[in-house]
Amino acid sequence: MLPLHGIGGRGDLPVPLWLAIYSAGAAVAVSFFALAAFWSRPRFESVAGRPLEFLTRIVDHPATRVVLKLAGLAALALLLGAAWFGNLEPSLNPAPTWLYVWIWVGIIPLSLLCGPIWRLANPLRTIAGLVRRTSYRRLPDGIAYWPAVAGLAGFLWLELVYPDGSDPRVVAIFATTYAVLNVAAGIVYGPSWFAIGDSFEVYAETLARLSPLGRGADGRLELRNPLAGLATTPQQPGLVGLLCLLLGSTAFDGLSRWSVWTRLTGGLDHIPAYTVGLIAAVAIVTALFLLAARTTGAAQIRPGAVGAAGLPGAFVHSLVPIAIGYAVAHYFSFAMFQGQEGWLLATDPFGRGWDLLGTSGTRIDYAFLGTGLIAGVQIGAIVLGHVLGVVSAHDRAADLFRRRQLRRAQYPMLAAMVAFTAGGIALVTAS
Questions:
Q1: How confident is the model at residue 394, as a pLDDT?
Q2: What's the Cα-to-Cα distance from 325 to each of 108, 250, 319, 394, 421, rounded to whole Å?
Q3: Which residues of 208-238 are buried (b: 16+ CB within 10 A; e: fewer)?
Q4: Is the separation of the CB atoms in 236 and 317 below 8 Å?
Q5: Among candidates 112, 91, 122, which has minimal Cα distance to 195?
Q6: What is the dihedral of CA 186, 187, 189, 192, to 10 degrees?
Q7: Average pLDDT for residues 373-389, to the nearest whole number?
Q8: How many CA atoms within 13 Å lie on the side-chain side of 314?
């Protein structure tokens, strides 16, 4: 089975673990009090970007759309072909690495650098679009993003709980089932399904809110302040569930590597024990965020200032940079090392003895990244993610609360952010 977690442990830290935790927590707290002192009005709620006319014409050109769609279809075909017909040994089949590294981890830099590009290349959208209908069924009321949450939960369970999640045939069954279900739903409900039901597209679109590239109100691409783009995140209960699921699952990934966890679950059946652990980790993170959000100035908030999702929905966008920071911290070294394997194995994707890329016999280079650099990226990603989360939450609070109530109203959210920071560093570095 592939080691589906970051590489590196406590020994990688250039400073003692307790000092890293205290310093990171202090950085988050100091940033909060600095914002409370000098940032009293919202700055990201209605900020227009700089239109990129030339880039918009290129991206929206029919030829570009066709190329992106063909690239998406080719990627899906290669993934399914290698998973179904390639080598049965996970270490000799590129499909698990393509799914868990190139796609799942690769969504992060792709969305941050290129903005909302995933939907343009999404092969499931393309396949469903081949079935032309005059009308589609209306999406059920209150569905929000819950289908995407359910699909993501299944994927994360496969990655973090199921012992044979990297088996090529298991990857094949999951990818095929996921594709069939989403294409069928897309045929019934139309393109709007993928915006709320396709877990990978919803995940990519959520991350793309933090990209400097985005679509303006007129549909044109624009260069914008990433935090202003983040402020446009929909205030939906389902999105709260999605981001808490991401944070909780990443926390469990680190927890499950602790020797304490191994000792506690050593005599138990793996799947039930790890399933309960995953659920518990997600539940704790969700409860902590909901408690912090619902007690953040609940008595001082202006009437009608938040939507149906309430205060959790109003502050959910602040979890996006935190989720990215957690993901980078956990998967950076994994992506840098195991990601090479996806290229090396692509020389013979179907296990036929080919050497299409001339890389047969080449091994992963583990020497190009030092442990100190890995630890620095891990800690830096978590701290930066939480600082950006604090900035985003404060800007939203400045829009919701009066100035004299601004600092006091945010204390519960600050406590949650500091807890997330300290826990994230402890889980990443001590596993």
A1: 80
A2: 10, 10, 10, 18, 10
A3: bbbbbbbbeeeebbbebebbbbbbbbbbbbb
A4: no
A5: 122
A6: 40
A7: 85
A8: 28
SS (H, E, C) 122-148: CHHHHHHHCCCCCCCCCCCCCCCCHHH
Answer yes or no: are the C-beta atoms of 104 and 339 closer than 8 Å. Answer: no
Q: Is 197's pLDDT higher than 60?
A: yes
Helix axes 17-38, 371-400, angle to 10 degrees: 30
Nearest CA among 173, 2, 176, 169 for reference residue 87: 169
**Per-residue pLDDT tens digits for 14-57:** 545 545 565 666 777 777 667 766 676 777 766 678 899 999 99
What sign does the CA torsion over 395, 400, 404, 410 have? negative
Q: Please give the helix or strand (H or E) that residue 266 lies within, else none.
A: none
pLDDT digit string, tens, across residues 58-86: 999 999 999 999 999 999 999 999 999 99
Looking at residue 422, its pLDDT comes to 72
- One-letter amino acid identity for 166? S
Contact 374, 7 (CB under 8 A): yes
The span from the CA of 3 to the CA of 9, in Å, is: 14
Give CB contacts under 8 A, 24+ apart, made by 202-206.
202/145, 202/148, 202/152, 202/242, 203/107, 203/148, 203/152, 203/242, 203/246, 204/107, 204/110, 204/111, 204/116, 204/118, 204/119, 205/111, 205/116, 205/118, 205/119, 206/233, 206/239, 206/242, 206/243, 206/320
Is the model's pLDDT at 278 over the cut of 90?
yes
At residue 51, the 3 state secondary structure works out as strand
Contact call for residues 17 and 424 (beta carbons, < 8 A): no
Catalogue the E-assigned strands of 128-261.
213-215, 221-223
Say if residue 431's pLDDT is above 60: no
Q: Which long-range contacts (CB under 8 A, 24 or more apart) does 11-17 make?
A: 11/371, 12/371, 12/372, 12/374, 12/375, 12/378, 12/429, 13/375, 13/379, 13/429, 14/372, 14/375, 14/376, 17/425, 17/426, 17/429, 17/430
Buried b (16+ CB within 10 A) or exposed e, 151-174: bbbebbbbbbbbeebbbbebbbeb
Percentage of residues in the chain with pLDDT exceeding 90? 46
Mean pLDDT of the chain: 85
pLDDT digits (tens, 9 = 90+) for 135-169: 889 998 888 899 999 999 999 999 999 999 999 99
